[in-house]
C-alpha cells in the first residue's frame, strides 16, 4: 500500500489484515528498490508505480507468489464492466438514456467498467453519449501526458504498454486521492481517448473535496476522495447545462465510500478547504 495511503487510511489496511493479509507500506524495507528510495527520502510518499515495482521484485524472489495488478489492467476493467451492465439494465427499466457519463480515473478501471457497454454503441454510431474521464490536476496524464510505450511500474520491471503517461519515474504529489496517483492510464482507455471516443478533464483537490462535502450534505453518503473528482465534474456539467438552457441526463460512477478516508476529510477541514 502506498505510504501516503498506509498512513492516512489505516482502516483500509486493517480490513485486509482481517481478511488474513499482511500489508506493507511502500516504499518498504522489504525490497531493493524500496530500501533505495527510503534511503533517499525516509518520508517518501510512494506511488502506485513504486508499489508495482516492489510487488514484481517480491514475485521474483518468492516462487509461490502470484501477482494480480489491479489499477490499470484489462482484467480489472473487464471485471468492473458489471457496473456498466447493471447501469444499462437500470436505464432500460426506467426508460431513460444518459447524455453524459462521468467517472474518475486512476488507472482507468472503474471508468472503463462504467462506460464500456454504452461506449460499444457509441463506437458503432448508435448513441451520442459524452464520456468524461476525470483525473486529478496533480496527475494530468490524459490532459497533459503523451501517448507512447512506457513501463507500467516505476523501475521498469513490467512489459511496456502503449498508453498515455507522464513517464514511469513520475512521483505524484501526496494528494489525498491515493487511487488517482498513477503515472499512466490503461491501454484500452488510452486508445479510445486517442481515437476521440471520450473526453478528459482534470479537477483539483479543493474543488473535489468541496463537491464531496456538498454531496454528503444532500445525500447523507460520504464519497471516497477519488469519487469526489467525478462528483465535481458532474456539478460542472449541471452548470453547463443550466447555462445552455438544455435538459441533460448526467450519470456518474460512485466508485467508493469515504468512511475509511475520514482522516483525509479531517485534514481538508483543518486547512479550511
Ligand atoms: C474509490 C476509488 N475510486 C477510483 C479509483 C481509481 O482507480 P481506477 O481508475 O482504476 O478505477 C480508486 C483506486 O484505488 C479508488 O479507490
Keywords:
273 residues; four-stranded parallel sheet; two-stranded antiparallel sheet; 11 helices; 12% strand; globular; binds pyridoxal-5'-phosphate
- Helical residues, percent: 40-55%
Structure ligands: pyridoxal-5'-phosphate
**Biggest sheet details:** 4 strands, parallel
How would you state the average pLDDT, rounded? 94
Q: How does the helix and strand content classify structurally? A: alpha/beta
Q: Looking at the structure, what is the overall shape?
A: globular
The topology string of helices and strands comes to HHHHHEHEHEEHEHHEH
Low-confidence stretches: none
> C-alpha Rg, in Å?
19 Å
* β-strand amount: 5-15%
DSSP summary: helix tally: 11
Strand adjacency order, main sheet:
5-2-1-6
By DSSP, the count of extended strands is: 6
Distance between the termini: 26 Å
Task: Give a short overview.
This protein is of the alpha/beta class and 273 residues long. 48% of the residues lie in helices and 12% in strands. It has helices at 3-8, 10-18, 32-40, 48-61, 74-94, 109-123, 141-144, 187-194, 205-219, 225-244, 262-270, and strands at residues 100-104, 130-136, 146-151, 160-165, 199-203, 250-252.
